[in-house]
Write a structure and sequence with these properties.
The complex is a heterodimer of chains A (about 90) and B (about 350).
Chain A: E1 3-9, H1 15-24, E2 29-33, E3 36-42, E4 44-48, H2 49-56, H3 65-68, E5 69-73, E6 75-78, E7 82-86
Antiparallel strand pairs in A: 1-3, 1-5, 2-3, 4-7, 6-7
Chain B: E1 6-7, E2 12-16, E3 23-27, H1 30-37, H2 50-53, H3 78-101, H4 113-141, H5 145-175, H6 182-188, H7 192-203, H8 207-227, H9 229-236, H10 240-270, H11 275-302, H12 311-330, H13 341-347
Antiparallel strand pairs in B: 1-2, 2-3
Classes of the chains: A alpha+beta (about 90), B mainly alpha (about 350).
Chain lengths: ~90, ~350
């Protein structure tokens, strides 16, 4: 099974987003490096708009992820409510 | 009277009722907005044939039957693009201002760290500019509307990367030697000839090969190693200017990698005859990209006084694991790992420091 990952700049904007990702993906593993955070997950990772909104207390557009995004791995599938990374193997 | 036509610029559907009744406004979803602002901008030509308008799309031998099958997973429209890119630029320049105002150049860990920045500016930044020119070209040469828009955005991204890198490092140029003539040095220093040759080759290729060279080799294989562990190392060594342009650029690269992978998948799904051509390009461009990485290996192992990880560790994460995941996935189309994949694995331990034997 291949690993998907997503990395963000470590800052105040991404802290609640990272919390939301860890809530929605119990199998995900968090790595903290200088200035950045990388989240690995086995084959599949989902980011949900609703969970982020719960964490930050305001409306959130998933395309805002792009501002602090560093990199990712896997195929992207984006809708209004979810941002999913996956490998088909 | 009801008006149900959405306004493409705002993505809002006006459901206005006449007189003094309620006015409900509903926002368009990402997918609908993308369709209106991207696919709807294309039209069927009538004055010229498609062959005359897109003369370079067939000679490489890639067969495409339906350009509408191309999809941009990020579904980014131009209006959203400008909004988020402007936000990235505001963040970038506020940090650069703070860095220069506070004499940030005096706070890096050691002088040898600057050697890594010189290599970056001489070898990589001109490459960003070359990628900008290349995407402006292929955005014109591809017939698909979704592809054209994605290439146009990437062309602007790459120009932004070259500019932000030059701006960020211009502060060092005020105080230290070796930064001023980077564009000339690209053509004169032996080690930058590797990167220059890579981009010259990509830019003289046809549109599909260019996409694979940049989208797969430069973005997927190379930039993750350059912009992620190296930039984290820049932060660790007190260089807020570089880490800022690095992460700001890499946030675009995430989109570029996705575009590159979509392009490979799209070509493979369109016609089985495309497979051997694509495999040949993957073999070629993996190796070309890997040789450019020789520069990054030295930067990571010798020029970061405080290290986040070694070159080998970075390769294991972003090369072996991440590349391996991609090739496992592409195996269902008949793609195998690139020729040179095993040789690359063997080279990792010595590529950052071993002298090439005289008998080779």
């Amino acid at each position: 099974m291949s690993t998907v990952f997503i990395a963000f700049q470590a800052n105040e904007e991404t802290r609640p987003i990272i919390d939301a990702i860890m809530i929605d993906n119990p199998e995900a593993v968090l790595h903290r490096d200088p200035a950045m955070v990388k989240i690995n997950a086995p084959s599949h990772l989902v980011i949900r708009k609703a969970t982020i909104e719960d964490q930050i207390g305001r409306e959130y557009d998933l395309q805002e992820l792009q501002i602090n995004l560093i990199t990712l791995s896997g195929y992207v599938d984006e809708t209004d409510d979810t941002f999913t990374l996956h490998w088909n193997n | 009277m009801k008006q149900t036509t959405p306004s493409p610029s705002t993505g809002i559907i006006e459901t206005e009722t006449s007189m003094d009744t309620t006015t409900a406004k509903k926002k368009l979803g990402t997918q609908e907005k993308y369709r209106y602002l991207t696919r709807d901008l294309g039209w069927e030509p009538s004055y010229q044939t498609k062959e005359a308008i897109y003369p370079y799309v067939e000679y490489e031998g890639i067969k495409i039957h339906d350009w509408d099958k191309w999809s941009d997973p990020f579904r980014l429209t131009m209006s959203s693009y400008w909004k988020y890119q402007a936000e990235k630029e505001r963040k970038f320049y506020s940090i650069i201002d703070a860095f220069t105002q506070n004499n940030g150049h005096l706070n890096i860990t050691d002088a040898r760290y600057l050697s890594a920045l010189k290599i970056f500016l001489q070898a990589i930044s001109p490459g960003e500019y070359a990628a900008h020119k290349g995407f402006a070209r292929v955005g014109r040469e591809f017939p698909g509307v979704g592809t054209q828009v994605a290439c146009q955005m990437q062309a602007i991204d790459e120009l932004r990367h070259a500019q932000t890198q030059i701006h960020a490092l211009s502060n060092y140029n005020k105080y230290y030697n070796g930064f001023h003539a980077f564009a000339d040095q690209r053509d004169r220093i032996w080690y930058t000839s590797v990167a220059r040759s890579f981009f010259d080759d990509a830019m003289s290729a046809g549109p599909f090969e260019f996409m694979l060279a940049i989208g797969f080799s430069f973005e997927y294989v190379l930039t993750n190693l350059l912009f992620v562990p190296f930039m984290s190392g820049a932060a660790f060594n007190g260089d807020m200017a570089t880490v800022t342009f690095g992460f700001s650029a890499q946030s675009d690269e995430a989109r570029h990698m996705t575009l590159g992978l979509e392009c490979i998948k799209f070509m493979l799904e369109q016609d089985p005859a495309n497979l051997p051509i694509i495999q040949g390009w993957i073999d070629k461009w993996f190796w070309r990209g890997f040789r450019v990485l020789g520069l990054v290996s030295t930067m990571m192992d010798y020029m970061l006084p405080k290290r986040v990880m070694s070159w080998r560790e970075a390769w294991e994460i972003y090369g072996e694991e991440n590349g391996g995941a991609l090739f496992n996935d592409l195996a269902r189309y008949g793609i195998r790992p690139p020729k040179g994949w095993d040789a690359a694995g063997e080279a990792i331990d010595h590529m950052s420091h071993r002298k090439i034997p005289d008998n080779i």
